[in-house]
Amino acid sequence: MKAYLNEELSFEERAKALVSEMTLEEKVFQTLNGAKEIKRLGVKAYNYWNEALHGVARAGVATVFPQAIGMAATFDEDLIEKVADVISTEGRAKFNVQQKYGDYDIYKGLTFWSPNVNIFRDPRWGRGHETFGEDPYLTSRLGVRFINGIQGHDKKYLKAAACAKHFAVHSGPEDLRHCFNAKVSEKDLCETYLPAFKACVKEANVEVVMGAYNRTNDEPCCGSKTLLKDILRDAWGFAGHVTSDCWAIKDFHEFHLVTKTPVESVSLAMNNGCDLNCGTMFVNLLQAVRDGLVEEKTIDLAVTRLMTTRMKLGLFDKEIPYSDISFDEVDSDKHRALNLEAAKKSLVLLKNKDNFLPLKKEKIKSIGVIGPNADSRAALVGNYEGTASEYVTILDGIREAAGSEIRVRFSEGCHLYKDRMSGLAEANDRMAEARAVADVSDVIVMCLGLDATIEGEEGDAGNEFGSGDKRFLTLPGLQEEILKAVCESGKPVVLVLLSGSALAVNWAEKSSKVPAIVQSWYPGAQGGRAVAKLLFGEYSPEGKLPVTFYKTTEELPDFTDYSMENRTYRYMKQEALYPFGYGLSYTHFSHKAEVFVDGVPAKEVLLSNAADHSGEELLKLNIDSVVTVKTAVTNCGDYNGGETVQVYIGARNLAGAPKYQLKALKKISLEKGETKMVEICLDSKAFGLFNDNREKVLFRGIYDIYVGAVQPDARSFSLTGSRPQQFAVECISEDVVETI
């Protein structure tokens, strides 16, 4: 028996033995995403490129869950892992039949290039909806649990291989990504851009990391010694394989101009730890070896890592735990039910003036559903999507929920971004129809926003002026004009936004004619059903914003500025339209918290970052301290519902520090009248902040701990009428608690 077929050996030993039998040319062709068959060694063709951002993508029918940003809005770690587990189950089921019929094509492997754990630092970035939002902590927690679901919990084999991307400091602009140099301070690098990747590597043992297109601090990410060697391999001990983004390595010499030839480019990538090339550039490794630019043993190591991944997936073994997953699992009733649950939990109620929602069916005879996203499948799914067997648009969902007693009328109202629906018509050719629908309706549901044809990845999105990015935060095209015209009917308007990012709906927020606003993201194939059930009160909304909704682009730094100053809730100076962590409910929750330092109760103080507590005796915090947060949450309202306990920490009067940062969360479900106790433990790392030496330091000074359902800003209070409780502790010594 060949050593690489001996299942008693470790995967690494088997992979090394297999690679030792390959020729140099065979090894080089294994470093391409479309790896060739080596018949004499029993190595099947394998394509590493597969996608599973919110369901198995681009390979036929699969359960299409809400886009990643919508799943982030659930603030629900357990749900994210359940969703990812379903994705990997369907991935295995499809893989098993594809292998049976000899289909080794792209999008047919078990190496899923998800999740995207980049930080959504600027709302103009078109790919932000692929992420888990703007916060490093939330992104870390959801990224870890998504990877757990994809990779499974078998002690020996991977159910599928997850990939944390794009490493690192990547968030637009899309049209500059092939040449852009993201200049970032060591502090911002360590505090904002790297934590989610570190968690994915060190906590979730992610199998794959993908490099980004851009340069970071002058080094192209897919060939960066700093990122791939110093941080990923040496500091974090990453043992899996690294893949380039697609065709990113040719950017080295074509756009970044850090190399002069393809041979130099592949040498830079391979020598700094990029094992797999999405594309075909790595064929130049043959010449690189001949020229002495790359040693063959470096290629041996890369191919060994790649073969280790395939062996962990069981591709060289006869019987593994996942080989009997049936094709019946794909798009099953159980999976569609989870999809609906995820969609319901992702929706965020932004406005509900005088409890206008939920709608009372008995008081309504006619509903007008208006807008370019009302009957749009594209607005359900976002990008990197699979094919659903059933798409329930908002219009479909409302018709289904309304039943036979309520007349539902529909108008597109306007194009998503153009000035007319029909090419030969005059501009605004659906205005009269929209007004007519409004006139004969008791209530109007306006479905506006974006979709992935204008908000997404360069080359995918049809946004001819922004390469997928947004220029502005306002509703595109004629959408706001149609909204205002419909409001002139005097009928109450519920605004349902479908988008993957923040929109500045300032007029709608202020207008008394728009009593309710729902942020629906791209809610997945069951999204319309979820929205309709929310509108008619079949459940209470519980989603929270994973991003800040700003009022204008004018208040934002330049899109190409990667400094975190005045970005996201952690550093912004201005008031948000809707803050990170915010979301309304049909029910009401009360929170009663206590905080303990090493078992001793901490002092509760008034909510004021600038308050001077000098002279007061505060509990002392040190490097060995354990801070315990205990809070009793009671559902005081008339609906069963979900609530998210949010814990923020702020360092008072420390120059350059964030105002405060999310450092713990817990999603719970409560029946009306029910109380649950939540206990959260924090160590000194939760209080640490990075310096410019990549050290997380517990600095001297006072730290505020905020416990509640919102962040401790004035805007959240004005929108919800509630504030988190604030506790203060003091550190009297300075210690390094962690290094990057």
**Helicity, as a percent range:** 25-40%
The major sheet is characterized as:
6 strands, mixed
The shape is globular
- Assembly type of the chains comes to single chain
Radius of gyration equals 26 Å
What's the arrangement of strands in the largest beta sheet? 9-14-13-12-10-11
Task: Give average pLDDT, whole number.
Answer: 96
Number of structural domains: 3
Termini gap: 44 Å
The helix tally amounts to: 21
Specify the structural class. alpha/beta
Beta-strand level of the residues, as a percent range?
15-25%
Using the coordinates shown, work out and report the CATH topology of the largest domain: TIM Barrel
The CATH superfamily name of the largest domain is: Glycoside hydrolase, family 3, N-terminal domain
Please write the CATH class name of the largest domain.
Alpha Beta
Say how many strands there are: 27
Taking pLDDT < 50 over at least 5 consecutive residues as the criterion, the unreliable ranges are: none
